[in-house]
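Blinded run. Sample ID left blank on purpose so nobody reads anything into the name before looking at the predicted structure. Input follows.
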Amino acid sequence: MSQELLIVTDNPGKKREYRALLASLPVPIRFPSDLGCRIDVQEDGTTYVENAARKARAGVQASGLLSLADDSGLEVDALGGEPGIRSARYTPGSDADRIAALLARLDGVPWEQRTARFRCVIAIATPAGDLYTTEGTCEGVIATAPAGTGGFGYDPVFYLPEFGCTMAQLPPEVKNRISHRARAVEAALPILQQLLEDRRTTASSCPTGI
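Blinded prediction complete.
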């Protein structure tokens, strides 16, 4: 019974963050590219949970490993919560294109009405068919122009008043303490630790045969 954890993403930014956020786990962290496979899931669910669960279950099906996936989005209050679960598909093109489209829609909206949050839902799927979910959020304000070169996605326009900078301007170790993904992982770690311990115990109790 393999003691590995598959993270169902090949997004370079997410991979970097997950390596840091899950460094305390006593098992190897794998990604689809490590296994020589590509996991494509249609992310057309109506909720973050639905999309994350689809990806996590696809990871189990492709690898047989305990699998973790997330779905996340930016929710802007002045836009009724958009782009939300469509954040990665808000407009065709690059992250810069999506940021430009977002800022165009918020043109003229005063600072006090530009409140927003990042939301991340993590799904953990087991080879036995069980599913667990956790959630994390991070509150902020949409800046009027991008700033910073760190992070990815909408980080350059997600301003954090308590830090006086955007998410893209934070040192990685600070982002990995306060971000929506960090908070979802914090809630997921006890679940992962228990599942891995259960698998270790099951494996060690199995007869070796003669």
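Unblinding after everyone has recorded impressions. The domain at 5-205 is CATH 3.90.950.10 (Maf protein).
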